[in-house]
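== Sequence and structure of one protein ==
=== Format: two labelled lines per protein ===
==== Data for this protein ====
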Amino acid sequence: MSAPAKSGYKEADQHEKAYQKQDAIFIGKKRVIGKPKRGKGFRFWKSVGLGFKTPKTAIEGTYVDKKCPFTGNVSIRGRILKAMVISTKMNRTVVVRRDYLRYVSKYRRFEKRHKNMSVHASPCFENMKAGDVVTIGQCRPIAKTVRFNILAHEPATNAALNVKKAFRMF
């Protein structure tokens, strides 16, 4: 169900109960007298800054995600981290594992520790699977346990690696 080709508006994928549209775009625009302006289309997207490029699928896609840092109403501030994806079973959310070392002064050694955290995965990052390395950025609380958003995605180099238990520091 797309609007006429003349207007340049392409309707978002409708697969939810509520009508899916971007908040920043007004789709009820009337015809303007004069020459039609070329340039910015009917899709809102932005650069999150900090040296991260906006994915091509975020610019050209038709998905609507208000929690996406590239097309939604979420700003990245605070920490930027790297982590490994260990589970992609949730809808638009992945579980990542952060590995780190903690110093024990009594024994003058380091011990391995890890934390799992839930991270929002925008639909612009397709084909994400366990073992992939992602760069995540802190944002406002999106859900009860979600406070980070994926900014960059690097596919896994070794598919045979056991991602649930492997200790990898970045």
